[in-house]
Amino acid sequence: MVTGYPVGQLPAERAGVTLNSEILSILSDRGADFTHFVDISGLAGELNRGYPGAILIGMVLSRGYVRKIMDTPDYVERMVRSCEIHMDEFQLKEVGTDRLADELTDRLAERGHEAFSQSEGNLTETGLYSEGTRTSPLPHKTIALMAGLGWIGKNNLLVTREFGSAVSMCTVLTDAPLDTVRRSPAESLCGSCETCIDACLPGALKGRAWEAGIPRDEMLDVDRCVTCLRCMALCPWTVRYAAG
């Protein structure tokens, strides 16, 4: 819980305290592991919806959870069969980052700023998320690239030096007066590694390395993907994180 600030409000600005730092404090108190403020003003209007800035909210999957997936190839399938998938850590953190994005959007609106939550629920409700293709106009990982967090691996996921792909993210687009950055995507360190491709039992990954402008379908057959999370957990960068 955020202490001292009523739900639906941001704290009043104080001398020497920026809106960035207030948001950072609030999101950290609410469980976010990292927050980045990104300049998206240079994107096409159909992508940024006319908003100049984005707030990227992230939660990190625990090392123990990643090791569980590594050691149990059918972990997700087991959770589905036992009707316990709603208790899965990845699912909980996906819901958690979405919830933080929705709450932050409301708080920014209370302060008179325009904001748009890119939570799955809001994207679906506004017709911006396609269930058939599992796509939205501006993916969170695109904003993460612009924040300089990492690169897109052959698993079609964001890969970071610190956590590998063991992250859950959501974003808020806004016109709030934030200090934002725009960085070039980190250079891919996947090289000739194909661990994620070998780990993909349904054969959904096509082995293509990411490059700017490449269609997702050239990297991933979304119809074959069963979200087993093995390509996330077995990525050497995720393994390095899980090893602690």
Spans of at least 5 consecutive residues whose pLDDT stays below 50 are: 1-16
Structural class: alpha+beta
Number of helices: 10
What share of residues is helical?
Answer: 25-40%
Output the strand order for the largest sheet: 1-2-6-3
Shape: globular
Strand residue percentage: 5-15%
Query: How many domain regions?
Result: 1
Number of strands: 6
What is the average per-residue confidence, as pLDDT, rounded to a whole number?
92
Order of helices and strands: HEHEHHHEHHEEEHHH
Terminal Cα separation, in Å? Answer: 28 Å
C-alpha-based Rg, rounded? 18 Å
Biggest sheet architecture: 4 strands, antiparallel
Task: Provide a descriptive summary of the structure in words.
The protein is of the alpha+beta class and 244 residues long. The chain has one domain (19-242). Helices cover 34% and strands 13% of the residues. The chain is built from 10 helices and 6 strands, in the order αβαβαααβααβββααα. The protein has helices at 19-29, 45-48, 63-71, 75-81, 89-110, 120-125, 140-147, 195-199, 230-233, 236-242; strands spanning 34-39, 53-60, 115-117, 150-152, 158-160, 167-174. The strands form 2 sheets. The protein has a 4-stranded antiparallel β-sheet with strand order 1-2-6-3, sandwiched between helices. Strands 4-5 form a two-stranded antiparallel sheet. A hairpin with a 5-residue loop joins β4 and β5. α3 crosses α10. The longest helix has 22 residues, at 89-110. Mean pLDDT is 92; it is low at 1-16.
